[in-house]
């Protein structure tokens, strides 16, 4: 990826650091972070850390870093992005009429022992350095003194009492290092519904720690919701708890089958072409509908289309089985549900749903925009084929038909065809309005 010109040599910078470094942070950077981010990003972190001792009132330029590291500025910019992505750096830009300046705020790395408590980082390191070296490092850095006896330490709730209800769910202590993924950003209601349908206690499976693990593996292996569900079901024990190691192995196996490869490596993210960028400022109702279908769950879609009522267990079961069997991404499944409801007078026909789902699965649709365009083209093709189909009629009588009658019949056929297209477009737009209406209501209640 071309990073030339992202920052200029004459642009200034300052370095900040908040917090405390672990005593053995250098070991952590060398043995645990460096395999993930590479020597240049590792060197940049150490260079900026040592620059803290030489902070002056005048802002230094990026010429300084180029001279220290003996690297071109585009390589330094690429190394900076890796530090940001792995959670070791925050960058703030100040724009003025004259030139830009930057503040580089270094973040504390995990200590070697705490590094292995982050499932995503640990799993990435495993794939980068191999099982033998990984187990050696893990055993070395996570050694603990053996403690004899039973742990009888009192918990916070056993000792203290608070009368502020909003504090009851807060953590007592929180690590200052921010996690790379946020489990709160993922909607687990769909998985909760799936577990309840199988008579599995969701609260035993979807613990806070397991939710974090599921979120991280979902990000690491780029898995869809139905693929994560498969992995969770595979890793359940007889006591209906999640075997974390089996879950990680199941996610890895799905990744291998999906991408036909074994190695997981951190790579730079390619910029998407302009025509593939999501619509940020939708101008039409159809664009608004696409955005809604991209971000909501199938369960929420059903509830919004039923004027905010609860989605039935039977409908959810049908959708889940079709989605899992055909491997459709959630946005594509949303378009499919919407399309089937429009074509079936708001009835969710399982046979019709499965028929179209198999077709869409072969078409390898990935986004709501692709699915909507595909649905429209298929409907247009069907209507044109129906219009061009030979119409075998009984032999007409020799009675003379006036020209004005033929002309009126022809106009009526054209009007009906136009009306079909207009009605179809109106149905899409009405659904967009309905979704926005109930999404706003839900947001107001939150």
Automatic annotation (TrEMBL):
Annotated ranges, domain Replicative helicase loading/DNA remodeling protein DnaB N-terminal winged helix: 9-223
Ranges of compositional bias, category Polar residues: 414-425
Matches recorded under Pfam families: DnaB_2 (PF07261), WHD_DnaB (PF25888)
Residue segments, region Disordered: 376-446
Basic residues bias: start-end ranges: 437-446
Span of domain DnaB/C C-terminal: 308-373
Stated family: Belongs to the DnaB/DnaD family.
Listed name of the protein: Replication initiation and membrane attachment protein
Taxonomic source organism: Virgibacillus litoralis
